[in-house]
Amino acid sequence: MKTAIVFSGSLQSIIRQAAELNGYISRNLSYTEEMEAWIVSAQEIDVKTIGFSHQITCVKLARVRTNHVAEEYLEAITKIYECTKPQILVFGSDWFASSLAVRTAYRLKGASCIGVKSSQDDDGCLLVEKAVYSNHLTAKLRIRSSPFCLSIAKGFKEKPELAAEPPEVERFALGSSLRTDWLLGYRCEQTETPEGLTTAKIVIAVGKGVGSKEQIPLLEELTKHLGGELGASRPVVMNAWLGMDRLIGASGSILSPEVCIVIGASGAAAFTVGIEKSKLIVAVNHDEKAPIFKMADVAICVDYQEFVDELIKRLHAE
């Protein structure tokens, strides 16, 4: 299969991508018959500053006007594709590259997969492996619609054989008519992501039964008194009562605390898979038929606010 390795963004970002993409090539793309690199950037790129795998035979360069408008990148990638039509497009692991992989597949009527750990040819289809359920399982998927647009998983550190000389370079003149003047400025801010949820000994897990975002401070107060961490079911984070980093369950964190106090969560399977390894589960719900009670070690059928107020009062007394 003919493969294109897609580099995007600033020179610094492209150099980081090259380190991971070369490792992915070394481990997974030995079956590829022909391989080329596409570089799309707003900067003038000197290919001598980038280490390319020896399997890459040529480089296609496309210059966009800004590093921050994805539509320009998509237009450039589509135009290069129309000239060479590779079966596989491999993108980097960062969020921007992943979004380009998905959006490129949609534009080219192909298929996409992000966070890919391995890939192999399967009689015209592509078999890929990726981590699922918060990295607790590995899924093997068959992708049928070409072009296959893959964004790789993070962490490829192999040091493959690099090309002794830079590959042949071909420049693409885009002449884009897209407007970019609507973007007046751009700033990146790093946010701190709490890491205590997965290692906490005590977890308060709240569901939509707590009623509203206005109730969260009370539950945060209880969590603080207990010296634990606050987590949530999907309806809570989807309503922005808590951040996505607090999601518990199949698509969030899988926990194994000493004590898990579940407040206002009915007990859907996608949620309970995230707490079933807890040593002690205390469930608080006003509905005596709530499924969560079936797995709870301690079941308390009461209005949760009564429970929280009384527990805080007793903790204050101590």
TrEMBL record:
Gene Ontology MF, one: flavin adenine dinucleotide binding
Stretch forming the signal peptide: none
GO biological process: fatty acid beta-oxidation using acyl-CoA dehydrogenase
Residue ranges constituting the Electron transfer flavoprotein alpha subunit C-terminal domain according to the UniProt record: 197-276
Alphabetically ordered keywords of this record: FAD, Flavoprotein, Transport
Gene3D superfamilies membership: HUPs (3.40.50.620), TPP-binding domain (3.40.50.1220)
Chain ranges of the Electron transfer flavoprotein alpha/beta-subunit N-terminal domain: 68-174
Family annotation (InterPro entries): DHS-like_NAD/FAD-binding_dom, ETF_a/b_N, ETF_a/FixB, ETF_asu_C, Rossmann-like_a/b/a_fold
Family, similarity comment: Belongs to the ETF alpha-subunit/FixB family.
PANTHER family: ELECTRON TRANSFER FLAVOPROTEIN ALPHA (PTHR43153), PROTEIN FIXB-RELATED (PTHR43153:SF5)
The protein's name: Electron transfer flavoprotein alpha subunit apoprotein
